[in-house]
Amino acid sequence: MTITPLMPVYPRCGVRPVRGEGAYLFGEDGQQYLDFASGIAVNALGHAHPHLTKAIAEQAATLMHVSNLYGSPQGEHLAQRLVDNTFADTVFFTNSGAEAVECAIKTARRYHFANGNPQRHTLITFDTAFHGRTLGAISATNQAKMRDGFEPLLPGFAYAKFNDLEGALALIDDNTAGFMVEPIQGEGGIRQASHEFLTGLRKACDEHGLLLVLDEVQCGYGRTGKFFAHELYGITPDIMSVAKGIGGGFPLGACLATEEAAKGMVAGTHGSTYGGNPLAMAAGEAILDVMLEDGFLENVTAMGDRLRQALEQMIPNHDHLFDSVRGTGLMLGLKLKSDSRAFVAFARDNHNLLLVSAGENVVRILPPLVIDESHIAECIDKLSTAARVYVPAADD
After folding, report:
1. Which residue among the candidates 87, 93, 126, 130 is catalytic per the annotation?
2. For every one of its 396 residues, what pLDDT tens digit does the chain have, with 9 covering 90 and above?
3. Cα three-residue angle 208-213-216, rounded to 5 degrees
4. C-alpha distances in Å from residue 352, one per residue of 314, 355, 371
5. Residue 130 falls in the annotated catalytic set
């Protein structure tokens, strides 16, 4: 047998974490790493946060799973807190971001079905988008690297260029259900929607009876310094998928919707065996407890501003390698003039700094939302030290 016990779909690196504490990971060999990847924007409170671990431990000792055949006091309470703090009127809990996206797609299609317009099933999505790895989610992107070999894909999607409002509006026809878009594309390279673009999509939905579906799996849950990124634009969606930071490391996602948008989601139209289990709800409650404290989001903004300033001050010292900074809050991207994946590997293997590569040769910098000035200084020091000795490959 040559295949590995773990299906070999991940090009795993040599870091093998066994323990975490705050903004640090520790490998099985004892190496300490500054974790500015956060499990790809998941570990919002860092590692082993005492409030989160206590909540999970207490719930695990009480009740972990019963299925959705029964009433869910835990789910009802967390859903109400989300409703109270967002645009939404109702919430469906999932185990992942991809499942949240699937629920959002189904909710959008079912809305038009309930209105007597089943032909309105096509969602307009955008280039370099990433919505997950399920068949529905990869059908919603036109990236060959995620689609090749998995055809036939799910019909019902049309593709426009990100930030091209005119091009997106030109695709509206009698089959259009709405738009599905990330306010800030993470995997695509920390590409931020322009104000004109996102507000224009909202206006078009209102004018044409369409639904605006936002994918805030990566950019939501405090990552930008707002609870959700769409708050930066002064608009609200009809449906929104969230995950990653919502559980702080525990598998959890959610699809949020207005009452009108969810009108077709009645008993029997959707379900999940594990979704909304009591253990996940305890994790979600603990994250909200911390994130909704006075000053938490303001501190994310302050640390994000400080990190951006430090990165911008660093760039001229290494302008052979670094180009610019993009993003908002603690969802930042460092644009490189060569292969970002190679530099991420170099910083990881030689300077114990964990980052995440993305499209357009961007290095994603996604630290825990609880970092302080000392972590920022350490990150900049490691980046600068790495940049001084890094030699890009000749073909970059």
Report:
1. 130
2. 799 999 999 999 999 999 999 999 999 999 999 999 999 999 999 999 999 999 999 999 999 999 999 999 999 999 999 999 999 999 999 999 999 999 999 999 999 999 999 999 999 999 999 999 999 999 999 988 999 999 999 999 999 999 999 999 999 999 999 999 999 999 999 999 999 999 999 999 999 999 999 999 999 999 999 999 999 999 999 999 999 999 999 999 999 999 999 999 999 999 999 999 999 999 999 999 999 999 999 999 999 999 999 999 999 999 999 999 999 999 999 999 999 999 999 999 999 999 999 999 999 999 999 999 999 999 999 999 999 999 888 665
3. 155
4. 19, 10, 17
5. yes
89 is catalytic: no
Set 93, 227, 238, 244: catalytic member: 244
Task: Show the 3-state SS of the chain.
Answer: CCCCCCCCCCCCCCCCEEEEEECEEEECCCCEEEECCHHHHCCCCCECCHHHHHHHHHHHCCCCCCCCCCCCHHHHHHHHHHHHHCCCCEEEEECCHHHHHHHHHHHHHHHHHHCCCCCCCEEEEECCCCCCCCHHHHHCCCCHHHHCCCCCCCCCEEEECCCCHHHHHHCCCCCEEEEEECCEECCCCCEECCHHHHHHHHHHHHHHCCEEEEECCCCCCCCCCCCCHHHHHCCCCCEEEECHHHCECECCEEEEECCCCCCCCCCCCCCCCCCCCHHHHHHHHHHHHHHCCCCHHHHHHHHHHHHHHHHHHHHHHHCCCEEEEEEECCEEEEEECCCHHHHHHHHHHHHCEECEEECCCEEEECCCCCCCHHHHHHHHHHHHHHHHHCCCCCCC
User: Is position 179 annotated as part of the catalytic site?
Assistant: no
Name the token pair of 284.
Answer: 């979600």
Q: Which two tokens stand for residue 198?
A: 């996102």
Please pick, among 35, 93, 126, 215, the residue that the annotation labels catalytic: 215
